[in-house]
Amino acid sequence: MSRITFYHSPRTRSSGTLVLLEELGADYDLELINMKAGEQRQPAYLAINPLGKVPAIRHGDALVTEQGAVYLYLADLFPRAGLAPALDDPLRGPYLRWTVFYGSSFEPAVVDRALKRDPAPSAMSPYGDYDSVIRTLADQLEEGPYLLGNRMTAADILWGSALNWTIGFGVVPNLPVFQRYVERMTARPAFARVAERDAAWVAEHERAAGKA
């Protein structure tokens, strides 16, 4: 199997992807992008993702951007890890639903809420309304312990990371069901390893900036 090249910036959305790579036991080459220094807007990285966003991966001839797509691709690439229901598994549809729901509905809703702006008219809004998004997610997790019941998938790594930072920034309410879920996911060793590595990289970047 070709090695994966993973483009990552510490303490960003791509941190969850790094957790996923660790959970999958994947071999990968890491390309660190210093977003505080603006490296995501330089031609070298814009050739990878013209939007200047992370995460992104290269695997052989395949270049994959967009967070949900990266998770789906990686989890399918390592079926033995058991983090993606197979195509003929009844859980495959719900797994795809909740992975895509994050980028198509949840992120637009929380960004609008963070910026204190109203959603688009209902006929145009990609998510309807903020309260419905939060209630839909909370109702699903009440059936837990994971999004798909007793089975943990790559979608839970995505959502565990996402709820951790959105609750931390105050754009998602810290409902008991969310708190239990975040605690369950972030207690996994892979989350702790990534947090430690991200902190070390950030400190290294700050030291380098101080010497410049």
Automatic annotation (TrEMBL):
Residues 1-82 form the GST N-terminal domain. It comes from Pseudomonas triclosanedens. CDD domains: GST_C_8 (cd03207), GST_N_GTT1_like (cd03046). SUPFAM superfamilies: GST C-terminal domain-like, Thioredoxin-like. This is Glutathione S-transferase family protein. It comes from the Bacteria. Transmembrane segments: none annotated. InterPro entries: Glutathione-S-Trfase_C_sf (IPR036282), Glutathione_S-Trfase (IPR040079), Glutathione_S-Trfase_N (IPR004045), GST_C (IPR004046), Thioredoxin-like_sf (IPR036249). Belongs to the GST superfamily.
